[in-house]
Amino acid sequence: MTKELYITDSYLRECACHILSVDGEKVIVDQTVCYPTGGGQEHDTGVIIQNGQEFEIFQVKKQSGQIVHFVKNAHLLAIGEAEIRLDWDRRYSLMSHHTLLHVLGAVVYKKYGALCTGNQIYPERARIDFNEFPELSQEEVQAIVDETNAIIKENYPISYRTVTRAEAENESGLIKTFVNLLPAHVTEVRLVSIGSIDEQACGGTHVKATGEIGMMKITDIKSKGKNNRRFEVVATR
Fold this sequence. Notes:
By secondary structure, the chain is α+β, with helices and mostly antiparallel strands. Helix content is about 20%, strand content about 40%.
């Protein structure tokens, strides 16, 4: 199994690695800083460096429980030592937008009791869906924006802890996520906290404190069925 270095340190930009296998454009290594597509967050990109040559990583996925790097000209790579370097600007923007969705989700849950039912995080924008959410007035939308940005400005720290699945299920009212939707083989759950205001199950990458997000702007709110809403947002710095 590939060691997921981003789980313990989202700010690692590069790492040494050992190439374990090359199959077409698919490369598997012993450890990586690259986040694979998952949890609504897009994959990282970057390069594998071997013998002074750079090979572009254009996609990262989990397949059959293994992290697979898709690499251009991978046939030129050899089994053995190499390095991985992230496209840091892309990663940092993904992190910022991911943390922003957690803050927004906390505000919406506090004000309306609505839960997140899905999200998608891109480098330049993000979206999040909520259930049981009435249509909002312009003033109510602005109140959500103001409260979210106030939390961002307070610069709350982001922290992590890992609990058993049973513990997570017992805390589901607090972490506001559907733990029972996780695959049966998942026995431990990583929880991401924003100061004392929010805690959710999440395996993605995040900034160290909310102040790094910048400010939130809601670009659109769409109806996704009766009492379900999709917020489209951007983080601006």
